[in-house]
Design a protein that fits this description.
About 25% of the residues lie in helices and about 20% in strands. It is an alpha/beta fold.
Length: about 325
């Protein structure tokens, strides 16, 4: 029976101090591993190692101060830690420098210290977050255990992200978060909805007070909250029975609802106007590939979708820049 043992550390940085924040993070990771030697994976909040200051405290140099290449000196330190402790590590997210661009990037490191996945946040929290958006969905495999999908904070407000990760075969969505505002309650609604609608585990990990408002959650594939943190520092230890994902998808949420069966039955038959008339492919976890979609006959195609979607809508200069950089 595949089981994923995780530790989600709800914690905060030392504001503005990268070195002190890393030392604190490293100590916390070592502590949870010592407490639970059988741990498979440790995750911490979004941008923890970037050591952001409080939301209302001016921090004009944040991006440049925190920026790092991937791989680079910071990821080398993280790789050594994962290799020494023999754990999978998702160290929140980093400010990644790539050429002239800066991204909010989550990485996954395996117990051999190798970076096996990199995900750039697709939906930065505009207008407050000025880092550039990514354009690719990311999953990685823990061999013999589970496929993990990566999302970051505001991504959870867009159901398309969780649906795409689940379609790609994710059993668990890990979502490092840094929320300082009272809309956290709505994020928890979305965490449950994304788990319920896609029949996956969701690990939504926020920063603790004073950096964030806490309320981290582990949600099961039926949308039920397994654990919920308070506002302060704490660790959610979870034992995720990955087989439950397949069981819930086969027999239905609460033995009733089988949304993937419904979706799969519509493959090639239902066009989505908001996606330019695109049709859904069979899910990867059920053997679907990009080759399984048949092109609609010419007489079935809607002429409204002949043009480039970007040409049909007017955009401000700022929005256009987002599209180009994405």
């Amino acid at each position: 029976m595949p089981v994923l043992n995780i530790a989600a550390i709800q914690t905060s940085p030392v504001p503005g101090d990268l070195d002190a924040t890393f030392e604190r993070f490293e100590s916390q990771v070592r502590t949870v591993v010592a407490m639970r030697p059988h741990l498979d994976l440790v995750v911490v909040p979004e941008l923890l190692l970037a050591a952001p200051k409080a939301m209302l405290e001016p921090d004009p140099d944040f991006d440049e101060r925190a920026a790092t290449t991937v791989p680079g000196p910071l990821t080398d330190r993280l790789s050594r830690l994962a290799r020494e402790l023999k754990i999978w590590l998702v160290p929140g997210s980093l400010v990644e420098r790539s050429g002239k661009h800066l991204y909010n990037t989550a990485i996954a490191i395996n117990p051999d210290g190798e970076i096996v996945a990199k995900y750039r946040k697709i939906f930065p929290w505009r207008p407050y977050e000025t880092l550039e958006p990514g354009s690719e969905f990311t999953t990685f495999d823990i061999p013999g255990v589970a496929r993990i999908g990566l999302a970051i904070c505001y991504d959870g407000s867009f159901p398309e992200v969780a649906r795409q990760l689940a379609w790609l075969g994710a059993d668990v969505i890990i979502q490092p978060t840094l929320t300082t505002t009272r809309d956290r309650e709505m994020e928890l609604v979305m965490a449950r909805a994304n788990a319920f609608a896609n029949q996956v585990f969701v690990v939504n990990l926020n920063a603790s007070d004073p950096a964030g408002v806490g309320d981290s959650v582990l949600v099961d594939p039926e949308g039920t909250v397994m654990q919920r943190a308070g506002a302060g520092e704490e660790t959610l230890f979870g034992v995720l029975d990955i087989e439950r994902v397949a069981i819930v998808r086969k027999y239905g949420t609460h033995g009733i609802n089988r949304p993937w069966d419904e979706l799969e039955s519509k493959c090639n038959g239902l066009a989505f106007p908001m996606y330019g008339g695109a049709r859904m492919l069979p899910p990867v976890f059920r053997g679907g590939t990009a080759d399984t979609l048949e092109e609609p006959a010419a007489e079935e195609q809607d002429p409204r979708f002949d043009a480039d979607p970007a040409d049909r809508v007017s955009h401000s200069d700022e929005e256009a820049a987002v599209r180009v950089h994405g």
